[in-house]
Structures are given as C-alpha cells and as structure tokens.
Design a protein that fits this description.
Strand order of the largest sheet: 3-2-1-4-5-6
Structural class: alpha/beta
Number of strands: 12
Number of helices: 15
Helix content: 40-55%
Low-confidence stretches: 1-6
Largest sheet: 6 strands, parallel
Length: 409
C-alpha cells in the first residue's frame, strides 16, 4: 500500500455517531475531516447517522447495537448477536474501507458503545488508528464493563496492529497503563480550536491581519492610537527592539491613521518609519495606515478595531498625556492585558489593574512592563492555547500520525 501522489492519503474517519453537535468527539472528527480535505487528503467519514457515508449498524443507537451493549453490561457476552453484528458490519464496511489507506476510529476501541464495530475494524485489513478521547476502563461510570474475557478485553488490551493516539498526556498515561503499552508508543495529539472563528473575526479583519503579517504573531502587541507625536510611538518601537530577541514571533501593530494636523504628522510618520528601519523592525512593527487603499481611506473600521483587541496578547498605550484613555476600557472589555504609563487618568480609568511604567521612562522600562504583562496567567494561557491548540499546529501532528500509520517513519 502506498501513499497518494504528493504524500496525500485516502482516509476513513469512523465514529459511532456523527450527529451535528457543538463540542464533543463529533465536532473534533468534523474538524479533522474539513482540515485534512483542505490539505489535499481524500477523506471519507463513516458513521451511522449524520452527514457521512452511512452504515446503520455503526450507530451506537441502532437497536441491535444497543441490545448488545446492554447484555455486555450485565456480564452476558452476547456471542450470537455480537458475531452477527460484527459480520454484518464487516461486510458493510468492506466497500467503504477497501480503497482507504488509513482508518482512524474515534473512541470506538476504548468505549463500550459498539464493540462489534471495534472488532470489524480490527479485521478490516487496513492500518487502524484508535483516536482515544475517552477510556471506559478507567471511568467509574462504566464499571459494569470492567470484566475479564472476550469481548470486554477489547477495552483493556491493545489490539494487534492498532496504533493508539491520545488527546492529552493524562489520557496517554491511562492508555499506556491500561493497554500495557509504552507511553512513547502512544502519541499525543490534542484537540484543536479555530481561534479566528472562536473570536468571531470577520473577513475584513482576517484580510487585514494577512496583509500586515499578523497571522503568526506570537505575541501580538496592539497599539490602538493615532500617529501623532503626543502618543510617543517611538517608545513602542524602542520597546519592540528590546523584546524582539526574546520573542522571535513578536509583532507590534499601530492601528490608527495619521493625526489630523497633516504636515507635522507626515513628518512624524516619516521619522517613525526611519526609526523602524534603523532598529531592524521592518518585519516586526506595522502601521496600518500604510495599508490604505488608492483612495487614501484608512483600512481599519470600528469592527476591525474590536476584533484586533481580541486578537492581541497585550495592549500598549505609550502616551504620557491623556484626557481619558478609551483604549483602557476597550482593553478591559476585551480581557486583554494593558500596559500604560502610570499617570493619574489611566490609573483612574484602569482601576489600577494595568501593568505600568513610570512617566518619562525609556524603551527598556516599557519593554519590561510588556514582558511582565506577557508573564501574567491570562496572557500565558492565551498564548498557550493559540500556540499549542490552534488547528494549524495540531494538524501537523495529525498528519504525522497518518504518515506513521502508513509506515513513513
């Protein structure tokens, strides 16, 4: 068996339910299917119901499947019914799996809801990956299935030729201990999240982020102010120069247009561009007014500003003079850590909840305040979620498992 041209594979994703729900195993399977297709894989979802290639007996709610599960819970091996279902499933699966390179079964081999399906899959003659979200053998809710002998042994004995995958290190340890495997032989591939979709980012903001090179920012520092001298944007650039060696993925984005006093602010913008170049920050600091269209319209509207707050890891206000400081409130509503000068009005509006630098401070102090904000629990959890559990990173690990199942180690 060989991979398709270009390293793409013909995959079958199997689950005993494919009902369209929010959250849960079904949503992860649906995301895998969508993203793997986007990478050029030929993906077939096999289930008992929902939007899939359907085989009724795959469904854990099929009357015969439920009857077998009930008998197993009482200690009855249900051999007659079990064998008939297994054989029928094997026959039905043949046409769905014979042209597949790899079969990935989500929770089928480690939960008791359709063990005839589990045995049919192990006998299908295709590389089989048991994607383990849950493990009945260690869950007290399924104590009635903790029994010796066949077919309960499927739940606590590694099946020959099956590659087990766990969705967390905790599950990895449980799978290894339960099935008698080495932990290193049970790869961990977590569930993922589409951060842009979760944050509700619109097309305009996504396109703006793409044009500004913000998509892979880690961290992203948002400076939501106009380009005017009183905002002291040179402090943001000097801080970025000190932070960039510590955070190779750093991006700083200044969202506002030029201030209304054109001559002075054109001169100030030119000064900032030169400073950016002198500091080697052309790929790190972006002024969104530089992305204005041919008509000169600023590319950022109110909705994009709100969405950029959600995208940012830290909000930075480098100015030392404000009449109110609306970005303080906006940062608070967005749940984004705020860094600003320790001046009375900003202290008032923030309620003392910002990370501050002293008035008159230079780039070193501003950078130190940003670094403190990034070390906060909120910021660390946010970056961990995006870096470790964003679908692009997770999908690489999914494809690595597929390559291993195909023998491409």
């Amino acid at each position: 068996m060989s991979r398709r041209p270009g390293g793409r594979a013909r995959l079958a994703l199997v689950h005993y339910s494919a009902a369209p729900v929010t959250g849960g195993v079904e949503s992860v399977l649906a995301a895998h299917a969508h993203l793997l297709r986007g990478r050029g894989h030929d993906v077939r979802v096999v289930a008992g119901r929902g939007e899939a290639s359907l085989l009724p007996e795959v469904d854990s709610r099929h009357p015969e499947v439920e009857a077998v599960a009930r008998r197993l819970a009482t200690g009855d091996a249900a051999s007659d019914q079990f064998d008939r279902l297994r054989d029928r499933l094997g026959e039905g699966l043949r046409s769905l799996l014979d042209d597949r390179d790899v079969v990935i079964a989500h929770n089928v081999l480690t939960m008791p809801f359709n063990l005839p399906l589990a045995t049919a899959l192990t006998g299908a003659g295709r590389p089989l990956v048991a994607w383990t979200h849950d493990l009945a053998w260690v869950n007290p809710r399924y104590a009635e299935y903790r029994r010796a002998g066949w077919p309960w042994s499927i739940l606590h004995e590694a099946q020959p030729g099956v590659r087990y995958v766990a969705v967390s290190r905790v599950r990895q340890a449980e799978v290894a201990a339960t099935l008698g495997l080495r932990r290193r032989d049970v790869p961990v591939v977590p569930n993922g999240v589409d951060a842009a979709r979760f944050w509700g980012l619109g097309r305009r903001t996504l396109e703006l982020a793409r044009r500004a090179g913000l998509e892979a920012a880690d961290p992203l520092v948002l400076v939501p102010v106009r380009v005017t001298r009183r905002k002291r944007l040179e402090l943001a650039l000097e801080a970025a120069a000190r932070l960039a060696p510590l955070y190779p993925g750093l991006r700083v984005v200044v969202t506002g247009p030029l201030g209304p006093h054109s001559a002075d602010n054109l001169e100030y913008a030119a000064y900032l561009r030169q400073l950016r170049s002198d500091l080697g920050l052309d790929q790190v600091v972006r002024f969104l007014h530089e992305l204005a269209g041919a008509d000169g319209r600023h590319p950022v509207d109110d909705r994009s500003i709100a969405e950029l707050y959600r995208l940012a890891d830290v909000v930075l206000l480098p100015s030392e003079s404000e009449g109110f400081g609306l970005p303080v409130v906006e940062a608070g509503l967005s749940g984004t850590p705020l860094v600003c000068a320790d001046i009375p009005v900003l202290r008032e509006v923030s309620g003392g909840a910002a990370w501050t630098f002293r008035p008159g401070a230079g780039g070193d102090d501003v950078a130190a305040a940003v670094a403190r904000a990034l070390r906060s629990r909120t910021a660390r959890l946010r970056r961990q979620a995006r870096r470790g559990y964003g679908w692009p990173a997770v999908l690489e690990r999914v494809e690595h498992v597929i390559d291993e199942a195909l023998g491409g180690r």
